[in-house]
Amino acid sequence: VQVNKNVISFKYDFFADYFKSIYTSEFIRLSSENKIITEDFIKILVENCWYGSSMVSDIVNRINLWSDDEILKCSDLISQLLKSENLELSNRRKAISGLFNICIAANFRFKSNNIIQNTALLKSIFGKSNEIVGLHIQNLHESEDVIRFDFSNTIIKDCHIENFNSFWDCKFNENTLFINCYLVGLGFDSNKKMPLTKEHFQNCTKDEAFDNAYDIAGYNVIKSEEQIRKNLSAFFSMFHRNGKLEPKNYKVEYKDHETIMQKYARLNGKVVSLRDLLNCLEHRNVIIWGIVKSKNIETIKIAEDYKADVLGLINDGSITRNINEIITDLRKKIVEK
Predict the structure, then answer these.
(1) Taking the model in full, what pTM does it have?
(2) 295-322: per-residue pLDDT in tens?
(3) How far apart are the first and last CA of the chain?
(4) CA–CA distance, 231 with 236 (Å, rounded to integer)
C-alpha cells in the first residue's frame, strides 16, 4: 500500500472491483453529493455492469434503500447519459443499459420480478405519458430470469434493444407501436404466435432473425390450420355412414361399435385435444348431446344447421364460412396453450 496525500495505491488490483461497487452504489444514492455523471462512473457502467455480472450483484447488495426517490435519481442520471454529446454511441448504449441493469436487479431484490413491478420501473425511468423513450437493453439473455414488461397501449420511441430473449414474452396489444428503434437478437419460439404484426414497427432497424421469425410464424399458421382441418375432418367422418351423418356413442361402447373417444385416441397427428374440440363445437352449437336412457349411453350428433358444412368438408374438403370459423377458434386454443 502506498499513500500519497489523498491517494491510496495498491500494489495489486484485486481491490479494484471492491471500490468500484462502493463508488457506484454511493453514486446512485439519493443523498449522494454526486449529481452529475463522471467519466469514472460511465467507465464502470460500460465495462462492468452487464446483467448478471458480479459487479451488478455487489452494487445492489450495497444499496440499503430502493424507493421512488432512488429510481428518480437513476432516471436523472440516464437522462444525462442520453444527452451526453461527448460520449461515443456504443459506450452511451452500454452505459444506459448498465445502469438500467442495476435498477432491474435492485427492483428484484427490494420488490419482485413480475410484469407489473418491471413495467412500473420501466415507466418511472423512461416513461413520458403513454410513451417509452430512450430505453436501452443489452444482453438480457444469459440470465435464468424471464424478464417481462407490459408494452400495451404504449409507443416505444428511439430505443435500443439488443439480445433480449424475453422480448416476445412481453405483453403487447393493438395499440403497441415501436418507432425509430433498434431491435436485434430478440429470439423467437417457433411454437408461439407472433404477438404483433410488422405494421407495429415503424422505421426500425431489425436483423435477419427478426424477419425470419415472421416468416416462420406465417408458415406455422398455415401449417397448424391444415392440421386442424385434418383433425376436424377425421372427427366429423366418425359420424358419416352411407352418405349420412348419424349420432355416435361418446364413450360407452355398444354392440362392438367403437366410441368417439376410442376413435379419436387412435388418430395420428392430433393437434387438438378431444376436450377442446368438443368444447368449441358445443359452444358454436355444431354438436348436440343426447342420451339413450334405456342403456344410459351418451351420444353426440351433428346439428341440422351444420350438416351441409360438415358433409362438404368430409366429401371434398370444402371450407365454408362456418368451418373456417371453427378452425380459427381451435387455432386460438392451441396458441393460448
Answers:
(1) 0.65
(2) 778 899 999 999 999 999 999 999 999 9
(3) 62
(4) 9
